[in-house]
Specification:
Strand content: 5-15%
Shape: globular
Radius of gyration: 33 Å
Largest sheet: 7 strands, parallel
Number of helices: 35
Distance between the termini: 13 Å
Number of strands: 23
Length: 949
């Protein structure tokens, strides 16, 4: 029983759910499911349906897609005409009081559609299957269960009455790892969209039986997730469930509001802010918070405040995606005042500028009516929008409000630079989810940061201290900028994966934007590149003309006149118009705003190559297609993290990291910012290793593969599936490394033990094996290669077991350095304390280390000596067990073998048959049998489970 079977895991889960209050019901098929549904709906609604009336109920249930059924489930009242002509109103789910529903658990329901499938464990709420749990035995990849659910979606969930289309949440687990995700229906769902549940401090609750079930599947909690924390995305017609950090953030905001229903004046202690790293989904979190707050009777308005007009539009669009028409965006100050005074508008989105105007000057008289109303204000990106007089104006005008802020990079004491900190304006931090949490959970990508020498023409990473020179004339030299553009032109295809992604470039100021654009433009006219480069920057009406020359292709000064920045921007917009067939300009604010939105759209959907900016788009702009940021700007603290984070949105398996190419020495500032916004020890979790590190790993992996298949032809000689699997795993690791390495500018096949042609040849063989598995007919023998994930997402880990500990002992014995020995001793001690599979073995291993290890001189003798020690201790314990419990040694040994290999826990009657001599009385049977079973399980756990991989 070294691996726990699905059956045992399923049985234990069902028992645990029953202890939580679920009623077990045996349901074999859809017919039984429908009979049970009728009973449960009758019980929930306090009615009795005739057969004809229940058919009408089924007609309601039988309509629509997964998304439409999710809406149907949440509707407050449904209506049918009873047999006697009366009206009958009923509900499928009590959404408002989510704990007041009927909870059942069943397993192994069969459903026949295109194929016949049996589902592992199903949670029924009011008789409807709302949570489906699929299990795999320990040791198997979690993705198998995920793929299985996708298969069920296609083959059987919609069969019959389609009741399994009402599933809201899926849970997948192999016992030690557990994830949940919402039902996307027929929409493509990536494995990246599955989530771990955590505690409030972001500690994962992975173990299905010991952690996850008691917390997440507790009836009231799972109901709350379904009723409150699933968002129905109206645009994409799919369900979106909140991640744990989003859940805790919203819950903490709600708690703060509910605790302070009556405020008695403004009080900062009743406010708070959410620190969730950039890219972790703050818009969805803030939307859900706004939506729930708006339903609290005491709250008259929820006002979502952004600090730029484009974010006003973007937020309104995002909110509209989640729920059409749920918010009202103010077009101007007059419109905002009207919306404030309209009691039928519960949620408003506005800019901070409009809000400030609404409570200033002559407008104050129009706002007096709502000055004392109970309202909640939610501020997006509160690290930047709330400094200055505006914050003061808001809290002095409104006297019955609470403020909550969201930020990925709060202003802390260290980066305040004399300004107020986020907490001094918003009160305490209510929840934290920092960048290292998000990278660990794969909710954002790591950064790969390259620092490029620009004072000498080199194409590889150099000694970073070389560029500790800050003279402006050096950094602003035209020759330097020209060389940087040459570098970008040469490497952009590589960075963007041949145009699959796009880039942003941030430079020191608007004049630098102009200089860089002119260089890109000139080189394009000379035929040196075909990159689509666009730019945008702000301007003022009466600014000074530029203080540098604009030269034509021959180096002559254009017109002999230095233009204003606005004129140049209009010139660049003409380029954009020619490229995309548009007609933008800067003639008025609306025209400029339309250009802004169009350029944002082009970057958002990968319709340009490089977006060149000074400050715009470096905060608040999200595009999953942006994977590279070229930096020639002195960034620091929150500005640096915000800019870098434009690149780290997750997308698919091909986007593995955010590429940051620095043409200034920002190494210390990068480390400083990451330290501040996560913790000092976490820097390695965010920064990708240098190129040389991956070369070393690639060559080691490649050499091991070449030992297995020295030539491409040798792949054809791998006759057994076990050998084919070894090749697949080895080459999959090589492909994964190649994908990471190919983003580095210094990547060169000459550095690797496999050249480009050989890599391509092995790739063909890899694909051949994959195709042969995919197209293989259904034979009697199942291929073990079906268990292999051909994608590049899996990272192999050491199996922490006794064999692993023995290898540590060998290392310990071979070390002479005290510090090294202490480090290994601490590692062993920590593993014995924290690894569940090793706890029962701790006493024996400690004894071997203290009594036997000092007597062993040659490290080669450690393994045989340990095996001898373990065998002797096992015999002693076995003899002690059979003697003390008066058991037949032969029968007990046989039962333990069955326990191990049949993966079935011994039954009470089987154990009692082991007893030699007098049998126990009826009163003694249960107590004695349970004790013997416990001792046998303890024996197996100590001496057999977790001994080897």
């Amino acid at each position: 029983m070294s691996k726990q079977s699905e059956q045992i895991l399923e049985e234990q889960l069902v028992l645990q759910l029953q202890k939580l209050g679920y009623q077990f019901v045996s349901i074999a098929n859809e017919k039984s499911l429908l009979s049970n549904l009728k009973v449960q709906l009758e019980r929930h609604n306090g009615v009795t349906f005739s057969s004809e009336e229940f058919e009408k109920v089924l007609n309601i249930l039988n309509k629509g897609s997964v998304f439409e059924k999710a809406k149907l489930l949440r509707e407050k009242k449904h209506h049918i005409i009873r047999d006697n002509g009366d009206n009958l109103y009923f509900e499928f789910l009590n959404v408002e009081h989510w704990c007041q529903n009927q909870y059942q658990i069943t397993n192994q329901i069969s459903q026949e559609g295109e194929y016949k499938n049996r589902y592992d464990v199903t949670i029924l709420i009011n008789g409807l299957p709302l949570v489906q749990i699929e299990l795999k035995r320990r040791g198997l990849e979690m993705k198998e269960a995920f793929n299985q659910i996708n298969r069920y979606q296609k083959h059987s969930f919609g069969a019959g009455q389609g009741l399994f289309h009402f599933v809201q949440l899926f849970v997948i687990s192999n016992g030690v790892n557990t994830k949940y995700f919402s039902n996307f229906g027929t929409h493509k769902q990536e494995y990246l969209q599955t989530f771990q549940w955590t505690d409030e401090h972001n500690g994962p609750l992975n173990n299905l039986l010991n952690e996850f079930t008691d917390v997440f599947l507790e009836p009231c909690h799972v109901s709350k997730m379904i009723c409150k924390y699933i968002v129905l995305n109206e645009t994409e017609k799919k369900l979106m469930v909140l991640r744990p950090y989003q859940y805790y953030a919203v819950e903490n905001i709600l708690k703060k509001v509910i605790e302070n229903t009556v405020l008695n004046g403004y009080d900062i202690q009743k406010n708070g802010y959410i620190w969730h790293t950039t890219g972790s989904g703050k818009t969805l979190t803030s939307f859900k918070a706004s939506q729930i707050l708006a339903k609290i009777p005491a709250i008259k308005k929820v006002v979502f405040v952004v600090d730029r007009k484009d974010l006003d539009y973007q937020t309104n669009q995002e909110y509209d995606k989640f729920s059409k028409g749920c918010v009202s965006a103010a077009d101007n100050t007059e419109d905002l005042i009207r919306k404030f005074n309209d009691p039928d508008i519960p949620i408003i989105v506005t800019t901070i500028q409009k809000l400030n105007n609404a409570i200033s000057g002559r407008n104050i008289a129009k706002m007096v009516k709502i000055q004392h109303q109970r309202m909640v204000f939610i501020f997006d990106e509160c690290h930047r929008s709330q400094f200055g007089d505006t914050h003061k104006n808001i809290v002095s005008f409104f006297d019955n409000i609470q403020l909550f802020g969201f930020t990925g990079t709060p202003i802390l004491a260290e980066n305040a630079d004399g300004e107020k900190t986020t907490s001094s304006l918003f009160g305490k931090c209510l929840h934290k989810y920092v960048i290292t949490d998000a990278i660990r959970d794969e909710n954002v990508l790591r950064f790969s940061v390259e620092y490029i020498q620009t004072f000498k023409k080199k194409e590889h990473i150099i000694d970073l201290k070389v560029e500790d020179i800050n003279e402006a004339e050096v950094f602003e030299a035209p020759e330097r900028k020209d060389a940087i553009v040459d570098y970008i032109i040469e490497h952009h295809s590589q960075k963007s994966q041949k145009g699959s992604f796009c880039a942003m470039m941030c430079v020191q100021d608007i004049d630098a934007v102009i200089q860089y654009y002119e260089i890109f433009r000139k080189k394009a006219q000379l035929g040196e590149h075909q990159l689509k480069v666009a730019t945008i920057f702000s301007f003022t009406q009466n600014e000074e003309e530029i203080n540098f020359d604009i030269a034509d292709l021959n180096g002559a000064i254009v017109n002999g006149i230095k233009p204003h920045r606005r004129e140049l921007l209009d010139n660049y917009i003409v380029d954009f118009n020619k490229l995309y067939g548009t007609s933008h300009s800067t003639k008025d604010s609306l025209s400029f705003y339309n250009y802004y939105n169009d350029i944002a759209k082009k970057a958002k959907f990968n319709e340009l190559d490089i977006l060149l900016v000074a400050n715009m788009f470096l905060t608040g702009f999200d595009s999953k297609y942006v994977n590279t940021l070229y930096v020639d700007k002195n960034l620091r603290y929150h500005g640096l993290i915000q800019a870098f984070s434009r690149t780290n949105r997750t997308f698919d398996k091909n986007k593995t990291q955010g590429n940051i190419v620095c043409f200034r020495n920002l190494k210390d500032r990068t480390d400083e910012a990451i330290t501040l916004f996560s913790n000092k020890d976490a820097i390695d979790e965010i920064i990708v290793e240098p190129y040389s590190h991956y070369v070393e790993i690639f060559n080691g992996t490649g050499e091991r593969m070449l030992e297995l298949v020295p030539s491409v032809e040798d792949v054809d000689k791998l006759y057994t599936e076990e050998d084919q699997m070894k090749f697949i795993l080895a080459f999959r690791a090589i492909m994964r490394l190649h994908k990471k390495m190919s983003h580095y500018s210094e990547f060169d096949w000459e550095d690797l033990c496999i050249d480009e042609q050989l890599f391509a040849d092995y790739s063909s063989k890899y694909q051949d094996i994959k195709d042969s598995i995919v197209h293989k007919g259904s034979g009697d023998k199942a291929s073990i290669l079906d268990d292999i994930d051909f994608e590049l997402e899996l990272i192999r880990r050491d199996t922490i077991n006794v064999t692993y500990i023995v290898q540590l002992l060998i290392r310990l014995k071979s070390k002479n350095n005290k510090a090294d020995r202490k480090s290994i001793e601490e590692e062993i001690s920590n593993l014995l304390s924290t690894q569940v599979s090793l706890r029962s073995k701790r006493e024996l291993i400690d004894r071997f280390i203290s009594e036997n290890l000092p007597k062993i001189e040659d490290t080669e003798d450690i393994v045989p000596e340990f095996e001898k020690f373990w065998g002797e201790e096992q015999k002693k314990e076995f003899s002690k067990l059979v003697e003390e419990e008066n058991l037949s040694a032969e029968k007990t040994e046989k039962l333990i073998e069955n326990y191990l290999f049949a993966e079935r826990e011994p039954l009470l009657d089987e154990v009692l048959k082991l007893i030699d001599g007098e049998k126990p009385t009826l009163l003694q049977r249960k107590k004695l049998g349970d004790r013997i079973i416990s001792r046998i399980k303890g024996f197996v756990d100590t001496f057999m489970n977790g001994m080897a991989a």
